[in-house]
Design brief:
Length: 381
């Protein structure tokens, strides 16, 4: 891609620059009301169609801890978590996301969330007793991008299982790391998320300046959520972290041993973006789950923004392995505050899959050399 004046090409093949407010021709107005002070992504409420099958996947195979359960709902957490849960699985008719939930710094930040989204004309619901068990006063909104977002501070504390090595598995999931959202207009989404107080860590662009994806953070890791360009609003994945790469390999071995290798969609591999080691799985409903480890610290105020060329074959897999088409095209529905699926809007700007895969697409491994397809040698199908 063409270097902008404010970008510096690094020896790793990507560009760095200092963050600026992302321009959007179709921007959501920035509210006068200040945004809530968001700490981190905290949990996702996921509707599943077969709770027993989901329990087997998330508890028996992936080893998440059960905080609480009843006939219709499972409350699960990762090893290091001290709040009530990181994942709520609720039995329902349509597999979808009911809430992307963020923890805020103080109880007073909920008033800020109400004012911020009310000024935008969004639907806002507040429940002093929480929408799910273990969580107190909460605000849920249909955000301007169509996603169901939740904010809370009060939560029950539970035991951190970090010291319970007797219970750990070889593929131990230690933290909730991030969400990933699919949206048709990435600059609009990034511009709005910056107004909400998120910082940009990395993005993928082409030489026309089209943005295909962006990674956004509150906590000082690479991200709390990412915006992936595509038909949306939809949920691309939820991601849990392990301590080490070998934990991810152990999950692959376990799935193979259980004859569940068809749950592995993509990877294991090394990301270019985020530098993390990764694996993508699909749960029994097709919800995508990433397992991820060893991204980098981003807490300084002048942390450089990394920009990848959409044609760089190493951006999504540092080893140049192909991205399977389903990873680009498939994602989960999201619900409105009444529990109905949000309509999906088609992305009209060019798609990353179209510009990098197949006869019309191209990509390179070494900048300046002849373009090649996304697929490495050996992929003739
Ligand atoms: Fe991810």
């Amino acid at each position: 891609m063409t270097r902008r004046d404010d970008m510096t090409l690094t020896s790793s093949g990507f560009y760095v620059s200092q963050e600026a407010r992302t321009h959007s021709d179709n921007a959501v107005p920035t509210p006068q009301a200040p945004p809530p002070d968001i700490l981190r992504c905290a949990y996702m409420e996921l509707v599943v169609t077969d709770l027993a099958a989901s329990r087997q996947f998330y508890v028996d195979i992936l080893g998440l801890y059960v905080t609480e359960e009843d006939d219709s709902t499972l409350y699960l957490r990762s090893t290091e978590e001290f709040i009530h849960h990181n994942l709520v699985l609720r039995q329902g008719p349509i597999a979808a996301v009911a809430a992307f939930s963020y923890r805020v710094r103080t109880a007073g930040d909920l008033d800020k969330a109400v004012a911020f989204y009310t000024e935008l004309g969004c639907r806002v619901k507040r429940r002093p007793d929480g929408f799910v068990n273990g969580i107190g006063d909460s605000v849920r909104v249909e955000d301007p991008l169509g996603f169901p977002y939740e904010f809370f501070f009060q939560t029950d504390h539970v035991e951190r299982m970090s010291w319970r090595y007797d219970l750990h598995s070889p593929g131990e999931l230690v933290r909730l790391d991030h969400f990933n959202q699919v949206t048709p207009d990435v600059p609009r989404a990034v511009n709005f998320m910056q107004a909400l107080g998120f910082r940009v860590t990395e993005d993928i662009q082409d030489d026309e300046g089209i943005v295909y994806a962006a990674w956004l953070r509150r906590k000082p890791s690479v991200h709390d959520t990412a915006m992936t360009g595509g038909d949306g609003p939809r949920m691309h994945h939820i991601c849990f972290a392990t301590h080490e790469k070998h934990n991810i390999l152990a999950i692959c071995d376990t799935l193979g041993a259980l004859r569940r290798s068809d749950a592995i969609e993509r990877g294991p591999g090394r990301h270019g973006v985020s530098n993390a080691f990764y694996l993508y799985l699909r749960d029994p409903d097709g919800h995508r789950v990433e397992i991820y480890t060893q991204d980098y610290y981003t807490g300084d105020p002048d942390n450089p923004v990394i920009t990848w060329d959409v044609h760089d074959n190493q951006r999504r897999d540092w080893w140049g392995n192909p991205v399977v088409p389903s990873w680009y095209s498939e994602a989960s529905l999201v619900l409105d505050l009444d529990g109905n699926p949000q309509p999906v809007v088609t992305r009209t700007t060019s798609s990353e899959m179209a510009v990098t895969i197949g006869a019309d697409g191209f990509s390179y491994t070494r900048r300046g050399e002849e373009a090649q397809g996304e697929y490495k040698l050996g992929n003739q199908l």
